[in-house]
Amino acid sequence: xxxxxxxxxxxxxxxxxxxxxxxxxxxxxxxxxxxxxxxxxxxxxxxxxxxxxxxxxxxxxxxxxxxxxxxxxxxxxxxxxxxxxxxxxxxxxxxxxxxxxxxxxxxxxxxxxxxxxxxxxxxxxxxxxxxxxxxxxxxxxxxxxxxxxxxxxxxxxxxxxx
Length: 162
Description:
Structural class: alpha+beta
CATH architecture: Roll
Shape: globular
Number of domains: 1
Number of helices: 4
CATH superfamily: Bifunctional nuclease domain
Radius of gyration: 18 Å
Strand order of the largest sheet: 3-2-1-7-4-5-6
Strand content: 35-45%
Number of strands: 7
Order of helices and strands: EEEHHEEEHEH
CATH class: Alpha Beta
Helix content: 10-25%
């Protein structure tokens, strides 16, 4: 029996100031809370490229994986962040091919990077989310793009370069 899950979305990446390690932020769609998952720098870069809509002439690793899955007439149907053991999160990538469904053990960072490329939904088990999520202010707009009427519209100067 599959555990109960909560759908989430990637709201961005942050850096843990104490370790300088990247953190991917997963926000629940239908409840409050954000699940932070510490990830490696290469995976953070792969997620950041996809969030920014960057593409490259040659496929990167997660792009190649998506191309191989497509070439096998399979589809990434979802990914689920399943558990936390010690300080390590675990996830599963669900692939469908015809009537067959495969659940493949994977790191959450790779799973998320693939889900973004395959436009597959991302889920977290309810128990994991409830015990590890935090309430955070998550912005819908990237910082610095909001319109703030309290700010004056001065031209940049040496004291105020931007």
